[in-house]
Amino acid sequence: MRNFMILTDECPSLLSVPLPHTIHMKSWQGSGNSWTMYIHYHLHGIGELQDFGRVASALNWHLTTNKDLRPGRYNGPRIAADAVARYYPRDRYQKKVIDIAAGTGFVAENLKARGFQHIDALEPSASMIAMAKKKGLYETYYENMLNDDPLNIETDTYDCAVSCGGFGEGHIPCAGIKELIRITKPGGIVCIVMRQCYLIDVEEYKDRLVPFMISLENTGMWTRVSRHVVQDYFIDLPGVVFLYTVQ
After folding, report:
1. Are strands 96-100 and 158-164 parallel, antiparallel or unpaired?
2. DSSP state, residue 72
3. Based on the domain organization, do 46 and 134 belong to the same domain?
4. 149 plus 193 within the same structural domain
5. In which element (H, E) is residue 150 found?
6. Separation of alpha carbons 110 and 87, rounded Å
7. 9-59 pLDDT, tens per residue?
8. Is 184 exposed, middle or buried (0-12, 13-18, 19+ CB in 10 A)?
């Protein structure tokens, strides 16, 4: 067994998962130049990839066949939904939620199972959105990346902005959090679930993400409710859950 980086339903997150050599070779032969583009994406980040959608389409095979993403191995979506549900024990059907880096809808599936009905999706990949639409999980779809550019979403729209797997190498920058705060109502929550190791291993977040979160709290933009480590976020790797209320 060897480890290869593949695009997964954390979307657009990257997971290093063990793949049999035969699967790797089949994927390589089947994707041609798109695989080269995908490697470029991983090394240089989404911002330098001109056609993210073609790469996602070429790797959709992984999304439907990779058993490492099944519940019990990739537990991030359940962990995220549980965190949001704990904060909103009642009237969940009334809450308006946006799923950031929604992928094909793993988080939304878990939110729906807990009684949340009004969920929108923010996702940069058209092919991922197409897959999510087949499930009928979201009310509105925004084909956008989250960064420091303003989204085409009104201020104070959501009761909750949740991101599971959107914070990783080449993904959402620290500055994107300000947009999460802007589109969330005062008194609403921002929930970020990510691999714990990314706080150290990813240059964008190392010694930056947590201090940035603290600085936003110091300026009165949000207040921390909790930060806790969870086990088995992905297989045996721990995750961290940040929960903040917007001021």
Report:
1. parallel
2. T
3. no
4. yes
5. none
6. 15
7. 344 333 333 333 333 333 333 333 333 333 333 434 444 444 444 444 445
8. buried
